[in-house]
Amino acid sequence: MRFLFKTSYAQDIALFRHSGQRFWYGALALALCAAPWLLPDYFLSQLTFIGIYSIACLGLMLLAGFTGQVSLGHAAFLAMGAYTEAWLQSKGWPFALSLPAAALVAGVSGVVVGLPALRVKGMYLAIATLAFGFILEEGVVRAEGITGGNTGLTVAALRIFGIDFDNGRNFYYLVVAIASLCVIGVLNLLRSPTGRAFVAIRDSEVSAQSMGIHLARYKTIAFALSAALAGIAGALYAHKIRFLSPEQFGFLQSVELLMMVVIGGLGSVHGAIFGPAFWIVVQQMIVLAKDYLPPVIGQQTGLQPTIFGLILVGFVMFEPMGLYGRWLKVRIFFELFPFYRKGMFKRQKSYMKSERVR
Amino acid sequence: MTAALLEARHLSVQFGGLKAVNDVSFEVWPNEIFSLIGPNGAGKTTIFNLISGLYRPTSGEVAFAGEVISRMPPHVIARLGIARTFQNIELFEHATVLQNLLVGRHCHRHTAWWQDLFFTGSVRRAEVEFRHQVEEVIDFLGLQHYRDSLVAGLPYGVRKVVELARALSMRPRMLLLDEPSSGLNTEETDDIGFRIADIKHDLGITVIMVEHDMGLVSRVSDRVLALNLGQELALGTAEEVQAHPGVIEAYLGTAELDDV
Ligand SMILES: Nc1ncnc2c1ncn2[C@@H]1O[C@H](COP(=O)(O)OP(=O)(O)O)[C@@H](O)[C@H]1O
Ligand SMILES: [Mg+2]
């Protein structure tokens, strides 16, 4: 077990808390760089998807996990980013401009969707965002001139400064780079006043305002940033799939994003990456397992949603802190190894419960 | 005579048919400890909510440092220098003690969210400065041991102190304490009493306190206002108010104060 002796405030503020962390994240960075040489194309492509979904989940995590505002319409922001990117690319905009534009368009739409959040909470907000998702999906179908409507839209191959980014390896690096920047941006927010204001709003709106936090402003910022991140993910998604149609951004997609975030662990940045990683790995396992299952089960149409539904229920019941919570426990088990006791976390939980009754 | 720091003028608020606060007026002088007492439901917490802007008065107004604040939103009032605690602790449960206190520095921030996004030099400098200031409060209230603990796991007594610390981190001009001793044992209550006195003497902060423990009230208060059913009963020193026939009657009706 490691004891941290803090000797300066800078240590408190630093992104990496100790040299061990620096080592492990360095190793992770190396592994990510080496992946194209180690993994077959198909797996690299799945890894790219994990990166793209991580960006979207990071946005949703900021909103749902850190600010406590539910969104059931997040796929709409994905769509905003994807279609903006596709359209601007077709107009010949360079990626360095079209990507920020996609983020901006999605972010502005996030501000609009965030408006009800200034008045309503919880279930009502979920319904309001859900409604927005439907409206936008309908809008995409109607705006045939830009989106191609129900027939769909083909996205041009991505070139940046004359370099072809349509091949798997280059695009993979692009996604990893952008995702890393997004992670750093979110971590920066969380260690500064803005992020603390988000958490304050999540935990107690009354005391947040009594501490001088302007609720409306910070909720709006949270919605805007969350949507902008989804927009960036959408833009990358557009180039990855290279074909867009409205049903890719429907209600189911919104729910999937929310499930990834919950499975990953609400309120942790790790969770925003664990969630989609777990999701895509399980998805691949289901595809593989299908061949070995008896046809009655294997060929069922609702197999995948059912399995994910069960996984979600399992997490909510047994590990509300998601994969991140599980990971923490495993880590503590090894750190404390000979001294770990079985009831450790249970005691803490029951203590918290009894405190709450007062 | 100096000017009052806080002034409630004919303050009333009505919820449906219930007049929770009914034409209450009082003045709080700078660097005074002013206590509000009264049986449950007397309207004490409601007065705090009116001062901090969580409720709007039906009629009347509150002035702070000569400025009418009763039409301002809570976050603006907080920035003017009014901090508060809550009767049922309202901490940010899933954050550490340090993070809770740092939120107290929020009203003194001067960086924008996009600077936070890049953690620019000025954000970094402000963060170090904030920690410096918060550390003083941690020392003042002896919270070093809990600095990096999650609030959710802390015992009740400690959480009360953390809430006080969070309010002090704002470096307010005025502090509203809603039942600072409720749920504490005698020893902890004595502790809180010393701390409130220190807040007045060492930090020069004006305190309005809602409190049921008459021992604590007598020990620290300069003046006491007794309320019942939203109306003023008596105003004066602790002894004067406790001897007031209306106050005795109000408490006998509820048989709540053992000290009276
Ligand atoms: N938001 C509200 N809506 C309706 N009634 C309220 C509200 N806030 C307070 N009250 C009522 O006002 C009265 C005074 O409450 P309160 O100020 O909390 O009393 P206390 O003096 O015990 O702190 C109580 O009858 C309470 O039910
Ligand atoms: Mg009360």
Keywords, please?
heterodimer; A: 358 residues; mainly alpha; two-stranded antiparallel ribbon; 4 strands; 74% helix; disordered C terminus; B: 260 residues; alpha/beta; Rossmann fold; six-stranded mixed sheet; four-stranded antiparallel sheet; 10 strands; 39% helix; binds adenosine-5'-diphosphate; binds magnesium ion
Plain-language structure description:
The complex is a heterodimer of chains A (358) and B (260). Chain A has helices at 9-13, 19-38, 41-66, 74-90, 95-114, 122-142, 144-147, 168-190, 193-203, 205-210, 215-241, 251-264, 269-290, 295-298, 303-318, 322-335, 344-357; strands at 153-154, 159-160, 163-164, 243-244. With 358 residues, chain A is mainly α. Chain A has one domain (32-345). In chain A, strands 1-4 form a two-stranded antiparallel ribbon. In chain A, strands 2-3 form a two-stranded antiparallel sheet. In chain A, a hairpin with a 2-residue loop joins strand 2 and strand 3 (163-164). In chain A, helix 3 crosses helix 13 (269-290), helix 5 (95-114) crosses helix 11 and helix 12 (251-264) crosses helix 13. The longest helix of chain A has 27 residues, at 215-241. The two termini of chain A are 34 Å apart. In chain A, 41% of the residues are buried. By secondary structure, chain B is of the alpha/beta class. Chain B folds into 2 domains: 1-81 and 173-260, 3-Layer(aba) Sandwich (Rossmann fold); 91-171, no CATH class. Chain B has helices at residues 44-51, 74-80, 97-103, 113-118, 121-141, 156-169, 186-201, 214-220, 238-243, 245-254; strands at residues 6-15, 18-28, 33-37, 59-64, 67-68, 82-84, 174-178, 206-210, 223-228, 231-236. Chain B has a 6-stranded mixed β-sheet with strand order 6-7-8-3-9-10, with helices on both faces. Chain B starts with 5 loop residues before the first strand and ends in a 6-residue tail after the last helix. Bound molecules: adenosine-5'-diphosphate and magnesium ion. Adenosine-5'-diphosphate is lined by residues 15, 18, 20, 38, 40-46 of chain B.
